[in-house]
Amino acid sequence: MAIDAATVRKVAHLARIKTPDDRLEPLAGELNGILAWIDQLSEVDVEGVEPMTSNVAQVLRLRDDVVTDGGKVADVLANAPRSADGFFVVPKVVE
Amino acid sequence: MTDLTQLTLKAAVDGLKAKAFSSEEITRAFLTNIEAANPVLNAYVEVTADKAIDMARASDARLQAGQGGVLEGAPLGIKDLFCTEGVQTAAGSNMLRGFVPPYESTVTANLWRDGAVMLGKLNMDEFAMGSSNETSAFGPVVNPWKSNSSNAELTPGGSSGGSASAVAADLCLAATASDTGGSIRQPAAFTGTVGIKPTYGRASRYGMVAFASSLDQAGPIARTVEDAALLLTSMCSFDPKDSTSLDIPTPDWSASVGRSVKGLRIGVPSEYVVDGMPDAIQKLWADGMDWLKDAGCEIVPISLPHTKYALPTYYIVAPAEASSNLARYDGMRFGHRAEGTASLTDLYESSRAEGFGNEVKRRLIIGAYVLSAGFYDAYYVRALKVRRRIAEDFDRVWDQVDAILTPSTPSAAFALGDKQIDPLQMYLNDIFTVTANLAGLPGISVPAGVDANGLPLGLQVIGKALDEATVFQVAGALEKAAGAVGRPERWW
């Protein structure tokens, strides 16, 4: 399942990373190299094996659904590229 | 007066308690070293001199009053992956350049609680993705060690390259670091320092800039095994703010260093003999076995049959988690935002294209690919199944052995620029360290010798989950038997 430039374009879009046309071929080459190497995983017998999603042998802790923190508007906005009146300011997104 | 910057963390803490010198004195001594070395080594991305002096004076006041925590007055360097309130935390990325967290990571909060002094923030590979510190937006870090056959500048390893270089070059007593696939142990091995990654869940990940959440774990880089134990004890804690944090007590691990290893069974995995492994590494490993045998350990040959699949598994799991974690950098709420974009999608795509470096982009695209429809089961789910196989390999050997001995890295430090062209060559650096991350186990790198060019090499001890005590015990025995590997000559 070799990756071509069109696939790179599609995946880069899924990852929301603008990728200039002249980078598509080189990236495809790099990714194919890495994926060919990764393909050795197909040698492993994983029949009946449960996927390992965590290496912590404990049940996920839940806490009461109550507010424990908050009222930090200034902190939340402190690193915003732009903000005004207690809100994030984003470029106009309605077409 | 002796050079205070040469002290171990333990000796410094003891000297401060005994009022042999003040925190302000030792802090100023480190700031002087940093001023001289940093233009060349590039270990610090930000030196917080004023804050350091303020913290040192506050420590001195506590020490004068006969109070203070276990690290009171000790100047440390902090990897720029840990959020520090009011101090830029950029994780080596242009995406976060200028980001000033309004909160403190739990790990650093623990250090300040115990009286430590912050000297500044340490350079690192961008978002901790790299094994040579060359992916940092703040430029590469230079290893204070040089080969005795060449004048080339060497990498200190990555991603905690700044931490390792700073500790080796006397720019702090010890440093925080983080390890996703070997990012504490590999740079420790390259710089003749000690680095430990604890059991996953020991150290809180709250306030650590996330790379791959199921693998990331904080730990220290220090000059001695005892120093590493001292610092790790302070860094670890149960933290309700991290859902993967383990609600268990943190032992005082410095008590384990120096304990006899007589009767311990040490596993030596046959799969860690890799093609093209330099003779120096083979010899180092054999020396390590001899030293432990002499100290009364039994060396037990073991097999971890899925070892060869660890790196390819890692290079699916880590990018997949990174592609999810780094989705938060969209230019809206924090981080870099591109100007003059045509649409919302264009804004996201341009902000991320401008903010991230090439290695990060490469991994995010791989991550998106292995998680995408059609490949999710073939790549991602398969990798998670192989990950379990790798963890089961370890589970099986703990009946036979108490700890495992391996080399830390497949080579000594290499020249900057050497492997940058080929990502696969770079990935292979983590071949001995990555299994411990996949299985969540503690692993330490101890300086154990030098190669023919006089460059330091490390041995790794891997332990059972939550059994850092044995890891420190064995590491202490190796350190004692190996003797000092020496210190880098000051050429900067």
Automatic annotation (TrEMBL), chain A:
<comment type="function">
    <text>Allows the formation of correctly charged Asn-tRNA(Asn) or Gln-tRNA(Gln) through the transamidation of misacylated Asp-tRNA(Asn) or Glu-tRNA(Gln) in organisms which lack either or both of asparaginyl-tRNA or glutaminyl-tRNA synthetases. The reaction takes place in the presence of glutamine and ATP through an activated phospho-Asp-tRNA(Asn) or phospho-Glu-tRNA(Gln).</text>
</comment>
<dbReference type="InterPro" id="IPR003837">
    <property type="entry name" value="GatC"/>
</dbReference>
<comment type="similarity">
    <text>Belongs to the GatC family.</text>
</comment>
<dbReference type="Pfam" id="PF02686">
    <property type="entry name" value="GatC"/>
</dbReference>
<keyword id="KW-0547">Nucleotide-binding</keyword>
<comment type="subunit">
    <text>Heterotrimer of A, B and C subunits.</text>
</comment>
<protein>
    <recommendedName>
        <fullName>Aspartyl/glutamyl-tRNA(Asn/Gln) amidotransferase subunit C</fullName>
        <ecNumber>6.3.5.-</ecNumber>
    </recommendedName>
</protein>
<dbReference type="InterPro" id="IPR036113">
    <property type="entry name" value="Asp/Glu-ADT_sf_sub_c"/>
</dbReference>
<keyword id="KW-0067">ATP-binding</keyword>
<keyword id="KW-0648">Protein biosynthesis</keyword>
<keyword id="KW-0436">Ligase</keyword>
From TrEMBL, chain B:
<feature type="domain" description="Amidase">
    <location>
        <begin position="25"/>
        <end position="471"/>
    </location>
</feature>
<protein>
    <recommendedName>
        <fullName>Glutamyl-tRNA(Gln) amidotransferase subunit A</fullName>
        <ecNumber>6.3.5.7</ecNumber>
    </recommendedName>
</protein>
<comment type="subunit">
    <text>Heterotrimer of A, B and C subunits.</text>
</comment>
<dbReference type="Pfam" id="PF01425">
    <property type="entry name" value="Amidase"/>
</dbReference>
<dbReference type="InterPro" id="IPR000120">
    <property type="entry name" value="Amidase"/>
</dbReference>
<feature type="active site" description="Charge relay system">
    <location>
        <position position="159"/>
    </location>
</feature>
<dbReference type="InterPro" id="IPR036928">
    <property type="entry name" value="AS_sf"/>
</dbReference>
<feature type="active site" description="Charge relay system">
    <location>
        <position position="79"/>
    </location>
</feature>
<dbReference type="GO" id="GO:0050567">
    <property type="term" value="F:glutaminyl-tRNA synthase (glutamine-hydrolyzing) activity"/>
</dbReference>
<comment type="similarity">
    <text>Belongs to the amidase family. GatA subfamily.</text>
</comment>
<keyword id="KW-0067">ATP-binding</keyword>
<feature type="active site" description="Acyl-ester intermediate">
    <location>
        <position position="183"/>
    </location>
</feature>
<dbReference type="InterPro" id="IPR004412">
    <property type="entry name" value="GatA"/>
</dbReference>
<dbReference type="InterPro" id="IPR023631">
    <property type="entry name" value="Amidase_dom"/>
</dbReference>
<keyword id="KW-0648">Protein biosynthesis</keyword>
<keyword id="KW-0547">Nucleotide-binding</keyword>
<dbReference type="InterPro" id="IPR020556">
    <property type="entry name" value="Amidase_CS"/>
</dbReference>
<keyword id="KW-0436">Ligase</keyword>
<comment type="function">
    <text>Allows the formation of correctly charged Gln-tRNA(Gln) through the transamidation of misacylated Glu-tRNA(Gln) in organisms which lack glutaminyl-tRNA synthetase. The reaction takes place in the presence of glutamine and ATP through an activated gamma-phospho-Glu-tRNA(Gln).</text>
</comment>
